[in-house]
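Weekly sync, protein design subgroup
Attendees: M.S., D.O., the rotation student, P.L. (late)

Item 1: inverse folding check
M.S. brought a backbone from last month's batch and wanted to see whether the design step gives back something sensible before we order anything. D.O. pointed out we never logged the input encoding, so this time it goes straight into the notes. Structure tokens as presented (161 positions):
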């Protein structure tokens, strides 16, 4: 288990004030022990193998660690999209640097799914790239999107558009 991933998971759980977490992947049991040691009130669900995962409820946070490299790309995209859209408010995916291109995954794939890169490639000791998605800060509200710019009421009955 990479120390960078452990630190990110701990910070993410504190930042999102999660009450429940879903951990999927071969590194999930070790990560669950760390999470439970730091946050005793956290309800942790662990799926060491991706095929064991059954969507049963919505979690505050979901972490996919050591799972994507064992899956075919279409199945991995479907799982990541399902976690992002349905199963969790906050989703974090860790992809090993060695597998980011060898298994067909690229950073562009994760960015296309709406994830933001959290970690940098620049460190030699770093072994994984971490991406996360939170619905609350996914898209900044544009300046024009406010009540003053809707419906143009002063133009009613003057022009037909």
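Designed sequence read out in the meeting:
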């Amino acid at each position: 288990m990479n120390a960078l991933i452990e630190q990110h998971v701990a910070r993410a759980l504190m930042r999102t004030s999660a009450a429940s977490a879903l951990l999927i992947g071969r590194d999930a049991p070790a990560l669950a022990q760390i999470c439970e040691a730091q946050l005793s009130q956290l309800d942790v669900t662990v799926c060491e193998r991706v095929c064991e995962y059954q969507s049963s409820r919505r979690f505050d946070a979901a972490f996919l660690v050591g799972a994507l490299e064992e899956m075919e790309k279409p199945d991995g995209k479907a799982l990541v999209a399902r976690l992002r859209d349905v199963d969790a408010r906050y989703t974090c995916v860790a992809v090993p640097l060695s597998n980011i291109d060898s298994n067909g995954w690229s950073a562009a794939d994760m960015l296309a799914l709406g994830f933001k890169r959290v970690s940098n490639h620049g460190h030699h000791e770093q072994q994984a790239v971490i991406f996360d998605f939170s619905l609350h800060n996914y898209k900044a509200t544009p300046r024009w999107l406010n009540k003053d710019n809707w419906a143009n009421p002063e133009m009613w009955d003057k022009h037909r558009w």
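Discussion: The first strand starts at residue 20 and ends at 24. The chain has five helices and six strands.
Action: P.L. to compare against the previous round before Friday.
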